[in-house]
Amino acid sequence: DAALFAMENSVRAMVVVGTDATSCESVIEVAQRISHSIPGVVALSSVGVHPHEAADSQKGDLALLEGVIASRPEGLVGLGECGLDYYYEFSPREIQIKSFFAQIELAKRYDLTLVIHTRDAWDDAFAVLDEAGWPERVVFHCFVGGIDEARRVLDHGSYISISGIVTFKNSAELKEVAAFVPTERLLIETDSPYLTPVPNRGKPNTPGYVSLVGAEVAKLRNCDISHLQGVIWRNTLRAFNAEYAANTPS
């Protein structure tokens, strides 16, 4: 079981993320089941419509999403992942932008952390956020920009989350970002089941491998891994407004 493997690898908190409206309830249920069945592990949830899914979303999908959010289910802390992806462009840009606008509004309305996926769409992503108004808490998940994009994110007090890409040999730009981000705005993640970190690249990713991401980030920042663990724990609780979980062992 992925959650048990994660616990065995010192993971004490995770965010289970949805990518479409129809699966949002099951995402929340998975997170709740982990939290209730594995002592010492806090599993939170985030639900939204990924830009890849924007074109396939039915007219009522955002209404369905809001209905679930409005019920205030236990452990729901985020809206997303949502945003813009012009690298694959599985959904037309105008549809992605419309969906992104709508989800920013939901995040603000229900005081949820906005979890953003953006790839090759930085200028438009920032333009949408500026026009819609940045929510109080924003996480740029699986960050794949450079220092310039990182500065723009940080100017708004948002968080930058580093994935297993940072362990890849050809990730010099991301390694630079991982060393650059201020301590209080740094998060790490796996983006399971994708982007498995070295030395397990080629295998399915799993939350327990976040320790490999952490080890690489600690090396790049020239800090002790135990110090980084404490930093990430506190940042995660703050980024997702989940300080209520602070009594769980870190």
What are the key terms here?
250 residues, 9 helices, 42% helix, 7-stranded parallel sheet, alpha/beta
Short description:
The protein has 250 residues and is an alpha/beta fold. The chain contains nine helices and seven strands; from the N terminus they run αβαβαβαβαβαβαβαα.
Overview of this protein structure:
- The two termini are 21 Å apart.
- Strands 1-2-3-4-5-6-7 form a 7-stranded parallel β-sheet.
- With 250 residues, it is an alpha/beta fold.
- The radius of gyration is 17 Å and the shape is globular.
- It has one domain: TIM Barrel.
Spans of at least 5 consecutive residues with low confidence? none
H/E element sequence = HEHEHEHEHEHEHEHH
Q: What is the CA-based Rg, rounded?
A: 17 Å
Instruction: Provide the helix percentage.
Output: 40-55%
The oligomerization state is single chain
Question: How many DSSP helices?
Answer: 9
CATH architecture identity = Alpha-Beta Barrel
Tell me what portion of residues adopts beta-strand conformation.
15-25%
Q: Can you say what the CATH homologous superfamily is? A: Metal-dependent hydrolases
Structural class: alpha/beta
CATH fold-level topology: TIM Barrel
